[in-house]
């Protein structure tokens, strides 16, 4: 940059050093300008020139030095002098969004060959000179493919978990076989339970009677052991264990060889109840023998399933509802308690996947106020997944019979630990109502509900429920991995309802110790069957 003043002081010229034409030329008339004015002009220009130089340097560094006119330079420098910024970046973002919207609205071509990784995509883009739209289309196709693979993997995982939950672990199968063999060869394993002098206690209502229906010997031992060890008055406990014919010998042998004195244990098989005949239980025979029902519970669970419109959580619930245990007579026995125990007034019915951690004697002191079933409601609680169950979670309200008779917002309650007033129950038609709705669901090809024995019980016990404090019965340990450990420690009964039973490999490791603490791993049968602490 050069400043040139003519010898006559009549002209002032500003020019560049690199071949630019004159940037500014001022001619001064001698008669119209004083030296004072000229001096001030030079001072002003001396002050402005450094700024002009800096802006010119910036423009040059940005690659605009090809400008060969003052007009061009002005267009470049003008916005900067006025404080404006270049919006090319914003335009680029807007163009990119426009391309994404176009790609999102278009169909992905059939047979498109997708790269296996992002690196391959970038390499392919460079080699083939893809434009932005083609790149976005390829990226969308890759992401959708990945989403499909993740969903398929999740559904496969759920199927495998379902099969694992429905199967019998090798150790438990071994335990049943060995105990059955012991029953046939060891007279002590066949001894009467309870001993003859204690038989009157089985119908004595001053004792606390528990009923447990199961074919799992190890699980039954945990329920009984935990109840006795947690009780303040174990001598008042009477357990009535009901099992099927194939498990009876092994179950009897276990409790004959491993007494839980001072508590009393009775073991009976369903074949030993005179009342359980085909005439009295016609629906259950139909459930077990109906081809469509057996195919539903034992058939291909993926056949006819529209997985594209199903979430993994919904699919998991449907799989749980198709557990074969739901067509087992043992699972329906609780609806016949008044007939199976005609001399008892009140019992506590327990599932085999629970652990008792507190003395349950106060349950017999709870006034049910004329109701039949004392149960924990499952529609309110801090755990929104476990304690958010209403009738709409169990029933198909698009079915006219369901919509007519039930309220979708009615609160559900839980099986697993229930106080039953058998005297009041015998005055109701609960069993007949249960049978009626089971028949209707069979007629509708299981379109009213899918989930086992609880839905018909929700209908049959409608108006007969007395809510009890939730601290008596904590649910969800078989499917809620985020169970609050401190609350589980304080609960009277914890329930591993769900697929992740504590005796299975798929059980939650951090929740299993609540259960394993009541397993006698030093027992010879347990050790010989390699039932090791998981």
Report on the structure:
With 534 residues, the protein is α/β, with parallel strands linked by helices. It has 2 domains: 45 residues; 363 residues, Spore Coat Polysaccharide Biosynthesis Protein SpsA, Chain A. 43% of the residues lie in helices and 10% in strands. It is built from 20 helices and 12 strands. The strands form 3 sheets. A 7-stranded mixed β-sheet has the order 6-5-4-7-10-9-11. The longest helix has 35 residues. The radius of gyration is 41 Å and the shape is elongated. The termini are far apart. The mean pLDDT is 82.
What Rg is obtained from the alpha carbons, in whole angstroms?
Answer: 41 Å
Poorly predicted runs of 5 or more residues: none
Give the overall shape.
Answer: elongated
CATH arch. level architecture of the largest domain: Alpha-Beta Complex
Q: Briefly, what CATH class of the largest domain? A: Alpha Beta
Query: How do the strands of the widest beta sheet line up side by side?
Result: 6-5-4-7-10-9-11
Helix content: 40-55%
Beginning-to-end CA distance, first to last residue: 85 Å
E-strand count: 12
What do we call the CATH topology of the largest domain? Spore Coat Polysaccharide Biosynthesis Protein SpsA, Chain A
**Roughly what is the average pLDDT, rounded to an integer?**
82
Structural class given helices, strands, pairing?
Answer: alpha/beta
DSSP helix count?
20
For the sheet with most strands, the description reads: 7 strands, mixed
CATH H level, superfamily name of the largest domain: Spore Coat Polysaccharide Biosynthesis Protein SpsA, Chain A
Q: Which percent range describes the beta-strand content?
A: 5-15%
Number of structurally distinct domains? 2
């Amino acid at each position: 940059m050069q400043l040139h003043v003519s010898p006559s002081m009549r002209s002032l010229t500003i020019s560049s050093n690199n071949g630019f034409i004159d940037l500014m030329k001022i001619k001064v008339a001698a008669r119209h300008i004083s030296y004072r004015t000229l001096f001030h002009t030079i001072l002003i220009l001396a002050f402005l020139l450094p700024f002009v130089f800096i802006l010119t340097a910036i423009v040059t560094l940005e690659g605009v030095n090809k400008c060969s006119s003052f007009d061009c330079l002005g267009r470049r420098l003008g916005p900067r002098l006025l404080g404006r910024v270049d919006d090319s970046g914003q335009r680029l973002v807007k163009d990119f969004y426009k391309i994404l919207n176009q790609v999102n609205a278009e169909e992905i071509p059939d047979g498109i060959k997708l790269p296996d990784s992002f690196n391959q995509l970038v390499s392919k883009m460079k080699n083939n000179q893809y434009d932005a739209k083609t790149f976005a289309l390829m990226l969308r196709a890759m992401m959708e493919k990945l989403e499909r693979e993740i969903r398929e993997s999740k559904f496969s995982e759920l199927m495998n978990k379902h099969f694992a939950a429905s199967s019998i672990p090798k150790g438990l199968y071994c335990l049943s076989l060995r105990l059955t063999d012991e029953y046939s060869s060891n007279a002590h394993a066949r001894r009467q339970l309870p001993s003859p002098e204690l038989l009157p206690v089985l119908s004595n209502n001053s004792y606390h009677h528990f009923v447990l229906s199961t074919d799992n010997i190890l699980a039954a031992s945990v329920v009984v052991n935990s109840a006795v060890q947690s009780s303040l008055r174990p001598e008042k406990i009477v357990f009535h264990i009901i099992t099927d014919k194939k498990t009876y010998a092994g179950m009897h042998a276990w409790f004959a060889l491993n007494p839980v004195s001072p508590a009393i244990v009775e073991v009976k098989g369903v074949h030993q109840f005179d009342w359980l005949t085909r005439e009295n239980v016609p629906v259950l025979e139909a459930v077990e023998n109906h081809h469509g029902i057996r195919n539903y519970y034992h058939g291909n669970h993926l056949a006819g399933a529209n997985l594209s419109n199903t979430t993994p959580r919904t699919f998991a619930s449907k799989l749980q509802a198709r557990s074969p245990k739901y067509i087992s007579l043992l699972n329906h026995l609780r609806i016949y308690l008044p007939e199976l125990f005609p001399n008892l007034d009140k019992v506590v019915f327990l599932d085999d996947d629970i652990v008792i951690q507190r003395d349950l004697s106060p349950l017999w002191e709870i006034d049910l106020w004329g109701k039949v079933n004392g149960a924990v409601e499952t529609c309110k609680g801090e755990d929104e997944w476990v304690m958010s169950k209403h009738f709409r979670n169990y029933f198909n309200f698009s079915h006219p019979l369901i919509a007519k008779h039930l309220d979708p917002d009615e609160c559900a309650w839980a099986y697993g630990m229930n106080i039953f007033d058998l005297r009041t129950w015998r005055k109701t038609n609960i069993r007949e109502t249960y049978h009626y709705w089971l028949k209707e669901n069979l007629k509708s090809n299981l379109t009213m509900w899918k989930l086992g024995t609880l839905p018909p019980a929700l209908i049959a016990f409608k108006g007969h429920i007395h809510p009890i404090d939730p601290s008596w019965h904590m649910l969800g340990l078989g499917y809620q991995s985020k169970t609050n450990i401190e609350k589980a420690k304080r609960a009277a009964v914890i329930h591993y309802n769900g697929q992740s039973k504590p005796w299975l490999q798929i059980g939650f490791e951090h929740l299993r110790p609540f259960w394993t603490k009541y397993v006698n791993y030093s027992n010879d049968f347990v050790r010989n069957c390699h039932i090791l602490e998981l």
